[in-house]
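[scheduler] slot 2 assigned
[scheduler] job type: sequence-to-structure, two independent chains
[scheduler] chain ordering preserved from manifest
[runner] begin chain α
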Amino acid sequence: MSRLSEHKLECEVLVAGGGPAGVCCALAAARLGVRTLLCQDRHVLGGNASSEVRMHIVGATGLREGLPLQVENREGGLIEEIRLELATRNPQRSPSMMDLLLYEKCRAEPNLTLMLNTAVVAVEMAGDRIERAIAERQSTEDRFSIGAKIFVDCTGDGRLGVEAGAPFRHGREGRSEHGESLAVAATGDGRTLGSTLLFQARKHDRPMPFVAPPWVRKFKPEDFRLRPFGKRGSDLGLEYGYWWAEWGGCLDTIKDNEHIRDELLAITLGVWNHIKNESDVVEASHWALEWLGFLPGKRESRRFVGQHVLTEQDAVESREFPDAIAFGGWPIDTHPPEGVDAPGEPPCNQHHLPCLYNIPLRSCISAGPRNLMFAGRNISATHIAFASTRVMATCAVIGQGVGTAAAVAVRENVVPAELATRADLVHRIQQRLLRDDCYLVGIRNADAQDLARGAAAHASSEQAEGRAANVLSGQTRSVHGYWTEAGIRAAAAAGWKPRLGGENLWDSVLRKVEHGGDPEDITFAPPDRCFPGTHRWMSDPAAGLPAWLELRWNEPVALSEVILIFDTGQHRHLTLTQADGYRDRMVWGRPQPETVRDYALEVEDGGAWRTLHVEQGNYQRRRAHRFDPVTTRAVRMRVLATNGLDHARILEVRAYA
């Protein structure tokens, strides 16, 4: 007889899996007023970014920084909110603070119920829909039967969807299946990317011995020819470990996960032993292990089959999708399944993408159960396309897109399988995402409820590239890169079409002629959808601060909410990392210098200005201010101070009744 106590729960959206995708999905749905339940099978949130694994969150910023006021690829929305919180509130770079922050975010939402240590293990079906999910929490000997309208699988391994009979793929497609040039062979196989265990070490003021267990892997110097470690300081990487200590892609990364973990321990400690005791790195003698991961950082397992399978061509050609809900830009990043057992192969092959690309809602809706959605590394994509979408910041924006779509579906009583066929609902989803400071390639603010679109913008001062009217451009970032208006016209006349490998017009002419460089790993939006410009008001530094920006209407309007989007330096990398060298490329331990710190929100009342709100110490990008309805002809943002910049910057102002 089972010792598990039975419980029955009800919600509107059930999210299984508490990594970046699941957290952002659940937060998005809950903040839109939908009763949401988040089941996480671990004791902390964060998945591969949690203190259990400690992988830093990367995404469309790619391998290097973008360009100020030209290439701002860092993801917005919820994942930006989380990154900014961590950068400001976690200067010590504690991995446990990531766990705590995500927990804090979820606990703060009244519409969100968080259940840690709770794994979805089964489902109950009603025809072609999931009716209930069965979850177990062994730590309290409880079993839960959870009813919901929509079920979202963010588990990575796809446990919820598999229990519901959703179709999925495992392994690599053949070249002939989708015509992908980067597919490894004519026919597919069951191999995947492998897993990694990271470690952390600290340098001491005296030699620190390490005696290796007898079962560690033995390595030779030639094994590291393509997997080098540095010789001194932060180049060593001993403070963080090595992502390339990878293994398990030739096995089943789900069924063989325990074996993979054991072998990864042997590999990781073998690498450590080689550097410490067998290499010529003298400085390594003073380093000692401080933490070693025991939960494999898994890269790949199942991928669901959805209404659309994202392919290499979709990403490389940045194909337009009418149902776009997220964007990506990380390179197509494939690894040899053998990992360290293939020392003669590079640990990764990163194929630069010409442009940012959109991810469609249909790749997040099951081709099986009609009320099943998914977000994260298990979305509907080929192995090659997945090699770009799998990184956690991209998973996070997919999660926010899916959570927003789920909320709209609940409110309209529409089954997810029908969402993408409803252009009106897709438009609502996209506009809500933009309102929440997400970015979609080529889609701008067309929110009929945004009263700011009918106003005129004025400012106390402005720069030539930062006119006040820019806050009404409908886009909250610059993604034109090196494209100029003349360059775009020339490319269009030449039939510009991005393609992987070789040179297009821009690579061969504009980049090299105009800039004398060849920044192959900077990715920006396609020329027909980049909308060149700074897309922000920038006050004149010579005029100093305070500075003000004003929206004015011809006729009085009733306002009860104003949304402000501030500059947060989205051309830079920003993520919690234990790698010192990577951290040094960021602004960490304090707010981003471009961000407005102190400001006042005012309305015109009877010919005078009345203050509605004063904010001090801001470091966030998106700030929404709600207040009792006021009727006015003008609203003004008075910037009193920034977090370091010598002038004020505001990217967008929205106003709602």
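[runner] end chain α
[runner] begin chain β
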Amino acid sequence: MKPYPSTNILNRELSWLHFNDRVLEEGARDDVPILERAKFVAIFASNLDEFFRVRVGSLRDQRHAKYKKLDASGLTAKEQIKQILSHTRKAVQRQSEIYLQWLKEYEETNTPNLSIGTLSRQEFKNLELYFKARIYPSLCPLVLDQSVTRFANGRLHLLVKLRKGRMGIVQLPPLMDRMIEGVDAVGRPGFFFLEEIVGTFVHFLFPDEQVGGWAVFRVTRSADIQVAVEDAGDLLEVIEQALPQRENGRIIRIEIEGKKAWAIEFLSQYLEVKPRDFIEVEAPLDLTCLVRWKRVKKEKEGLFESFEPAEKNWWKGDIFEAIRKSDRIHMVPYEKFDPVLQLMEQAVCDPQVIAIQQTLYRVSDQSPVVEALRQAALKGKQVTVVIELRARFDEENNIRWARTLEEAGCQVVYGHPIQKVHTKALAVIREEEDGLRTYLHLGTGNYNEVTAKLYTDFGYFTADPAMAQDISRMFHYITGSMKIPEFKSLAVAPFTLRTTLMDRIEDCMRAAKRGEAAWIFLKMNSLVDARMIEALYEASQAGVKVDCLVRGICCLRPGLKGVSEHIHVKSIVGRFLEHQRVFFFSTGEWEKLYLSSADWMPRNLDRRVELMFPVTSPLAIESIKGWMRLQWQDENRAHRLKADGTYRPISREKGALDSQACFIGELMERSRV
């Protein structure tokens, strides 16, 4: 495979920022219900927080360590940070514009954002009484000196200008409602932001001082946790002890509401950070609060029309018999998550089931999946659960569930000592007349009934003996009893997933060179790995048609003359988060379809335990191919990636095809029959 210049690879961080821009623009669309638009603005803000904590935090560490190696796109860490900050300032400006426009439209028909400056004298007095009774007791103001530097990550603070250059600080209580009801505070409908009320009456917090102004700011810290996993005797305890590091990480961003040069000057010196690390925001800070808007306002209007997921009856009754008869494909959120729960619940109650093995990466706070595993262990079944403690930002939840499962008698494995376990697999071993039979559920998404209503994912039910044998080997590798397993039916990272994908690409290339029509269709969250991108470039030059649906990061440049002319890339951002990984390879003589837990990133292919499995059921294959065709035809929620790394909407015309709406419409039409 010939090497390609770095100019043929897009920078992954900038590609991610373009993805988040697409999320934000959903908040500006007039065909999105108004409360749902607020949610997209909130998701943009939440995504950006995590991006800075994880990705920018890592780049800052590289720069601090004087790490000079270029990334695949040819940029140093310093160059990447500079471009990220430039892009972010423009994106945050756009966020403010969208939020203010949204607020204007929302106020025309709903509850207004009340301005304290327009209150009557009596209303202002009422607000003061509300502050003293309902807010003041929870606040603990501080006069700043050099002993106070650890501003908590993500918390809203007021910096208060006092006499003789001295400064005060007020941290807003994170559990207090951010949006204060106007009826409660001043006696008329509307809402205030908490920080505006505190700022208005901040002089009551410093009665012996003369307050000369105040500014709202927010600190973002690196989320990196340093854990020597290979040497950890008790991984659960080591990670639990390491979690506080996250809140005390290096400061990587400070947001300031409005133009407050005096606040930036003071904080940059006080916290020893550069002015370039500050981002001035015209709208209120931390608009992640908008994701809770519909719950706060208790409104039913302005939301996406509800729909009832399909409830196919193949799994009703004896689910083991149904799976023995035929492999089954399952697609959430358009179908209910219930078949997965039915398989687990029947496994708990069935006396012929002797063992259950499952991987868990992210589960809900009140997980019925975990409860089923717990009940199975209490009934005396052999239950082995691989629970990945290093699932970022889910560590505490996973530690809690690990202890719960252990107390019930489950055999809990805290992931693999070196690689994160990201695969999604459930194996139920049942004693039958002709011996032991294993029933499998393999998926592209987590065993989480909450996200199954928001993420699009495929699951595959099968009793295929070859797949069952490979899954057993995978579990044995994770638990440490097998060092280099051999797989015959499945492709498992870090062993055979990359090579299997490369083999399929080369198969298509050979077919194209023979003059056959060859097609590769890929659906994933992220396409980053340079070696895989170069293989696709080679396929394009051989005449293979390559269609990629990549929701998030895509470092491949489509449409480059002589390099990627036969490659097309689209991204769909809509009501549901597109989360499936689907890899389809076709020539004039054969076709192969795979589902996977893995994106095409170095970490997924080389440094994690990931699973890719073939779909062999003809009915399931045709169902997935129909889905592929419909998604590729999407014109409403889809954007096309240009060779310069920018994205353009395919169409915004009324009536343009919206693939997610088509799936929902089909279900609703079916329910009316």
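[runner] end chain β
[qc] chain β: The chain has four domains: 1-106, 111-297, 315-489, 493-672.
[scheduler] slot 2 released
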